[in-house]
């Protein structure tokens, strides 16, 4: 079967079989359970941002592109009060009486300062807050320099329940979808010198340095993952009804073969699948690297019991992540003085552009998952290459004791990091299902 890949994953010292076994037996089941928890399932995103690159592409009216909104009462109270800003970030505490209100960001979900009846506390908070806010702004401006993505925590951002809006076939295709992929590959991926074709053939990749190959491989791996999801949750049949039309979703082997078989893709399909394994290893390594930091996160939603369960499950999951025998080695990238620094900056700029292109996706459901996966990958790149996670304390630090890191990840970054990795883990697991169907 063309989708039973063998041997070493390009640019890594690890075999496909090792990843298949590790993912399907150890990672996938744990992650599936973890991502159904409230902390991870509610993702704050702005789907209304204007596309800054072109305006002649209307938003798509395909029924299956619709994103179902969240009911206010479904959002955990701790998240509604959550402010990505100062108190949480500077002091790392979860004391709701201190998590004020005075940073009202225009979001209806925030509490209104007018309703803060404890005047004395309100006064203290205001004074702490003003100083904290100023400090925070400085910190944020500085920290943003290390971001690989545009962050979506503005007033138009809304919570979306990811479990209500699964990634699957939507029917988004044609000119609009191609314009996105084309501008990602053509304008925002590195290319070998004198290469004018739209898409890069895998055998051309060795004409580029490791860093540029890595860039291409992670984008191609993410593209493969998106397309695997639409094949494994394809619209198989529809029931028309005026009240609630419904669809039946399941694997479509023909669609999968069309997209990945060497016969229909000029031999490229299996390479794209290998790139899926590549991006998986890169994000796995980011999780392992940030593990001492993540193991001390509060995962606050306002429910003591749920939050305790999540902290426990995350720690267990991270210890499995760290046990992987053959992690991707990011230390061999961006070495070599000024030239390497310049390359890293280009790498970051290209990736930021791709995060902005996500605002041009013409199907809301695809945009939702596209943004989530790009932001999660951006968080992984930040962990691997910003240098700020390089000196984390070793694992096993006492609970409650913060890992020594010069900065912290915001909730949105943690949610997208885990969910993006969840998509890749799911894709690798789906490959096994396709192999089974093919064998049968
Ligand atoms: P496309 O997938 O559009 O690919 C265009 C060209 O890119 C191909 O002809 C091939 O030459 C090359 N290519 C294909 N795969 C790879 C790869 N892995 N690496 C390198 N090159 C490659 N559709 C849904 O149904 N559900 C979704 O959730 C969804 N999410 C999307 C999210 C984003 C951000 C985008 C841009 C599109 C999304 N789509 C989604 C659309 C989907 O990805 C395809 O674009 C669409 O199905 C049309 O497919 P296609 O066969 O024309 O090839």
TrEMBL record:
It is a peripheral membrane protein. One of its GO terms (molecular function) is FAD binding. This is Ero1-like protein. It comes from the Eukaryota. It holds the Pfam family ERO1. The keyword Kinase does not apply. FAD binds at residues 168, 170, 181, 220, 223, 259. One of its GO terms (cellular component) is endoplasmic reticulum membrane. One of its GO terms (biological process) is protein folding in endoplasmic reticulum. Its main location: endoplasmic reticulum. May function both as a monomer and a homodimer. Keywords: Disulfide bond, Electron transport, Endoplasmic reticulum, FAD, Flavoprotein, Glycoprotein, Membrane, Oxidoreductase, Redox-active center, Signal, Transport. Belongs to the EROs family. InterPro entries: Ero1, ERO1-like_sf. The active site is at 363 (nucleophile), 366. It is found in: Endoplasmic reticulum membrane. Its cofactor is FAD. Disulfide bonds join 60-65, 110-149, 363-366. The lineage of its organism: Eukaryota, Metazoa, Ecdysozoa, Arthropoda, Hexapoda.
């Amino acid at each position: 079967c063309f989708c039973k890949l063998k041997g070493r994953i390009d640019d890594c010292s690890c075999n496909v079989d090792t990843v298949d076994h590790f993912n399907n037996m150890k990672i996938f089941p744990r992650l599936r359970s973890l991502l159904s928890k409230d902390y991870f399932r509610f993702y704050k995103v702005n789907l209304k941002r204007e596309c800054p690159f072109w305006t002649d592409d209307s938003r798509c009216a395909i029924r299956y592109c619709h994103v179902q909104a969240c009911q206010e009462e479904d959002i955990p109270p701790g998240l509604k009060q959550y402010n990505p800003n100062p108190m949480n970030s500077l002091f790392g505490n979860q004391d709701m009486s201190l998590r004020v209100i005075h940073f009202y960001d225009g979001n209806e979900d925030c509490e209104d300062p007018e309703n803060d009846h404890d005047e004395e506390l309100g006064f203290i908070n205001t004074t702490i807050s003003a100083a904290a806010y100023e400090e925070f702004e400085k910190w944020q401006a500085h920290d943003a320099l290390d971001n690989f993505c545009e962050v979506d925590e503005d007033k138009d951002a809304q919570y979306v329940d990811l479990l209500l809006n699964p990634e699957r076939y939507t029917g988004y295709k044609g000119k609009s979808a191609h314009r996105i992929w084309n501008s990602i590959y053509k304008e925002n991926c590195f290319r070998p010198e004198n290469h004018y074709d739209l898409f890069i053939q895998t055998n051309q990749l060795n004409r580029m340095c490791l860093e540029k190959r890595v860039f291409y491989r992670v984008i191609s791996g993410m593209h493969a993952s998106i397309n695997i999801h639409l094949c494994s949750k394809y619209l198989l049949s529809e029931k028309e009804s005026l009240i609630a039309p419904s669809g039946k979703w399941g694997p479509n082997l023909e669609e999968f073969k069309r997209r990945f078989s060497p016969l229909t893709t000029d031999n490229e399909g299996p390479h794209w699948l290998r790139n899926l394994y590549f991006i998986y290893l890169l994000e796995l390594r980011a999780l392992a690297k940030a593990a001492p930091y993540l193991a001390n996160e509060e995962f606050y939603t306002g429910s003591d019991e749920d939050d305790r369960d999540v902290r426990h499950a995350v720690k267990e999951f991270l210890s499995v992540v760290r046990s992987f025998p053959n992690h991707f080695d990011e230390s061999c990238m961006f070495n070599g003085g000024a030239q390497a620094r310049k390359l890293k900056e280009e790498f970051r700029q290209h990736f930021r552009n791709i995060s902005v292109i996500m605002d041009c996706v013409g199907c809301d459901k695809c945009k939702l998952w596209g943004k989530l996966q790009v932001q999660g990958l951006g968080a992984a790149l930040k962990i691997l290459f910003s240098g700020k996670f390089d000196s984390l304390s070793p694992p096993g630090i006492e609970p409650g004791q913060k890992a020594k890191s010069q900065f912290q990840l915001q909730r949105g970054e943690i949610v997208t990091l885990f969910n993006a990795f969840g998509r890749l883990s799911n894709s690798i697991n789906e490959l096994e299902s396709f192999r089974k169907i093919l064998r049968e």
